[in-house]
Amino acid sequence: MMDADRLKRFLRELKKKEVRMTCGLLGVECVSMSYVWDSFFDLKKPYKKGARYTLDELLFMSDAEFEEVVDEYFFEIVDRLNYHVQHVLHPVLKLPINSDMETVKKKFRELAKEMHPDTGGSIEEFLALYEAYELFKRKRY
User: Which residues share a beta bridge with 41?
Assistant: First the structure.
């Protein structure tokens, strides 16, 4: 296994990758949700109780065990992103997750007319709709 400094650098790089993945897939500049990394790893003593793995535990793992932890970490990221897309974005568009792009465009235009500030809608609702539509477009291409 690695020494403590090398392991810390590796884990910090994992967090950077999570940030890039999350921001890239969700199409946002900064993410207001907490990161999976924070619930998985704790590198500073005294250790907090919330993390699954402390630095000391990771240092004493075999390479195979450590690979399993990294795999588990990435699966958790994917699960969280899927949850975010299914439960946060799709209710805004009010469409099933497997909708085709033509259906999404049609629904977006319909909702945009209703929610646009010029027709009595709120700016917040309109922006949420627009962001969900943009994300949906990015995921399709």
Answer: 53
